[in-house]
Amino acid sequence: SPKMASDSPESLMTLCTDYCLRNLEGTLCYLLDNETLRLHPDIFLPSEICDKLVNEYVELVKTDSIFEPHESFFTLFSDPRSTRLARIHLREHIVQDQDLEAIRKQDLIELYLTNCEKLTAKSLQTLVSFSHTLISLSLFGCCNIFYEEENPGGCEDDCLVNPTRQVLVKDFTFEGFSRLRILNLGRLIEGVNVETLLRPLASLAALDLSGIQLNDVGFLTQWKDSLVSLVLYNMDLSEEHIQVIAQLRKLRHLDISRDHLSSYYKFKLTRRVLNLFVENLVNLTSLDISGHTMLENCTIPSMEEKMGQTSIEPAKSSIAPFRGLKRPLQFLGLFETSLCRLTHIPAYKVSGDKNEEQVLNAIEAYTEHRPEITSRAINLLFDIARIERCSQLLRALQLVITALKCHKDDKNIQVTGSAALFYLTNSEYRMEQSVKLRRQVIQVVLNGMESYQEVTVQRNCCLTLCNFSIPEELEFQYRRVNELLLNILNQSRQDESIQRIAVHLCNALVCQVDNDHKEAVGKMGFVMTMLKLIQKKLADKTCDQVMEFSWSALWNITDETPDNCEMFLNYSGMKLFLECLKEFPEKQELHRNMLGLLGNVAEVKELRPQLMTSQFISVFSNLLESKADGIEVSYNACGVLSHIMFDGPEAWRIYEPHREEVVKRMWAAIQSWDINSRRNINYRSFEPILRLLPQGISPVSQHWATWALYNLVSVY
Q1: SUPFAM superfamilies attached here (predicted)?
Q2: Residue 477 gets which letter from DSSP?
Q3: What's the number of domains the chain is made of?
Q4: Element (H, E) at 90
Q5: Per residue in 400-428, pLDDT tens?
Q6: Which residues contact 601 (CB under 8 A, 6 or more apart)?
């Protein structure tokens, strides 16, 4: 069905790209001198493949914590005779000057550098080598690319006193970039003369000057016959700016939106300004005026406004100036303005805060370059998902996943995004989600847990994981999710609620999984972590969910896993068992969990001698009479003793209590149980019980095993 469209498998191209990047040495490359990656000499790759390799590599480094970046990766693309690059998107600290330098011989058509803070003026020089082919360039947020390092003095000793100083490069221009049509200089550093920088460009089609303060934009008119897209987000405008914009008659997309929280703006939008745009910019299909305060009322009278069916026809527009439009706009940005709540808005797509559709449009439009706006839009989505019902679930999930991936280090987005995910993945939406989509959610949740030790993010992520079927849906990230949860539980200061959820998740993860999984988790320190939690709770004299879950988790992880049973004994598990029994004599659930675990330990022949002490045997014998949790505590105590008895009289190395006396109490206990008891227990296999059947050493053990099998197969 179309609902599950996102469940189609990845393309072969995507799968191959991913595999090659994770196994460069085994596929495209070999290691030179054990450190430098080199392309095999018989490999020739076209730009369709190389672009994907580079773009996917950047994505993997950014979003997959297990993926190891290679220092010499970009050198694989240094020779255009064997590898061709045309369109590449590089982001953040992943790319450095030497990486761009390595690919300088490539004929790049499109180069997007987003928030690449490590790039310096060396990379400006490298850009020149792409000048004859480059059509589209973004330097958005590359805040150091106009800085070069200057060494004062030049002498060795002096350099230690005066470290390198950052100096602004003033003489760089886009001279020679004859084909450049699309340019994004968003968040350009102050002090660079934009007019001089851009003057050599003959015919710009799209220009983004987000976050740059320019008092004079008159120079824009030199492209009045070619400019179709202009973005001046967060620029404080004036009447002069408006007059210049009105002359750019070819504009199809104009964005003068702002973040109304960022700083004080003198400029206020008026009816006249909007009229001017509508009259002069006749080709306009997209306009963004989000965040602006309207100086005067631009709406039609409210009686008229409320009338009739909602319409996008300009003639019926609730915003008076837009009645002059020839046709509805494709996009109208009204986020955080009062206009978005009107009835008739002449646009196919509107960003705003009135309803789910507007909010999703906002997240979609602003995620890439405006995290400050996106986090507020996601917050609105969170409210919609929490209070109402999301009608565009798949789109909402996809957008939140994209935002979380794109802004892994933005605290606001991680907090609001992880909270929204919790509500978007809960059970009422379950049917509409594909396996692939749910896996993407798990990936971003684990990314969030990895990057943020912040309590809110950790709690949101843990809660979201509880919406999944555990362990099945987390199996593909099994090791990673366990490491993250143990990491949370090993922190010295802990939030009670997170601790409770994390222990619950740990317990669910080791229930009903294969032994190799349990052994792997045991080696990560699982047993030790749970015992530490129990120790802490004992010291506080508290028996809460954390205490019970911890014992339950130990019961699960020791099931038919001798290594983990041994760890339990080596880390003084028996001492804690006795102390808990003494401190909490009335806690039935606790007793059941502890004895279930000891049943697992007793199944291991090599470990049984450690249980053979007067103290332990007395405790087990006394628990035979326990009525705690129906028959569970008595049944488990009898199971422990049945395995011990199975080793024969010669293994009974104690004087008190006598073997016969204990046997008698075991018979009595078994006789007292109701054979039709409904049980509170999960068996993964009957092997440990079946072991006790074909033997003549201990009839009482045989009797316990037969009773157990009869009960389990007749009740279930």
Answers
A1: ARM repeat, RNI-like
A2: G
A3: 2
A4: strand 87-91
A5: 999 999 998 899 999 999 999 999 998 77
A6: 558, 565, 568, 569, 607, 611, 640
**Residues with pLDDT less than 70, the chain:** 1-7, 151-164, 305
Helix (H, G, I), strand (E, B) or coil at 423: helix
CB 145 within 8 A of CB 116: yes
Q: How far is CA 546 from CA 177, 374, 394, 468, 535, in A?
A: 64, 37, 35, 21, 11
Return the pLDDT at 154.
Answer: 52
Q: Is residue 276 part of a domain?
A: no
Whether the upstream peptide bond of residue 46 has omega within 30° of 0, thus cis, is no
Residue 36 has a pLDDT of 87
Q: Is residue 306 assigned to a domain?
A: no
Q: 């010291």: which residue's tokens?
A: 539
How far apart are the C-alpha atoms of 456 and 121, rounded to whole Å?
Answer: 39
- What local confidence, expressed as pLDDT, does residue 332 receive? 98
- pLDDT score for 63: 85
Residue 393 is given by DSSP the state H
Cα–Cα dist 374/341, whole Å = 19
Phi, psi of 353 (to 5 degrees): -125, 20
Chain CA centroid to CA 438, Å: 12
Which of 482-519 are b and which e, b meaning 16 or more Cβ less than 10 Å from the residue's Cβ? bbbbbbbbeeeebeeebbbbbbbbbbbbbbebeeebbe
Alpha-carbon span 366 to 375, nearest angstrom = 10
pLDDT, tens digit (0-9, with 9 covering 90-100), for 453-501: 788 999 999 999 999 999 899 999 999 999 999 999 988 777 888 999 9
Domain boundary among 161, 188, 215: 188
Q: Work out the angle at residue 707's Cα, subtended by the Cα atoms of residues 704 and 712, and round it to the nearest 5 degrees.
A: 125
Is 709 part of a structural domain of the chain?
yes
> How many whole angstroms separate alpha carbon 98 and alpha carbon 387?
51
Yes or no: say if 207 and 234 are a contact pair by the CB < 8 Å rule. Answer: no
Residue 85's domain spans which residues?
27-148+170-188
How many residues appear in the chain? Answer: 716
Question: Which residues 6+ apart lie within 8 Å of 157 measured at CB?
Answer: none
d(CA 406, CA 172): 30
Asked if residue 666 belongs to a domain, the reply is: yes
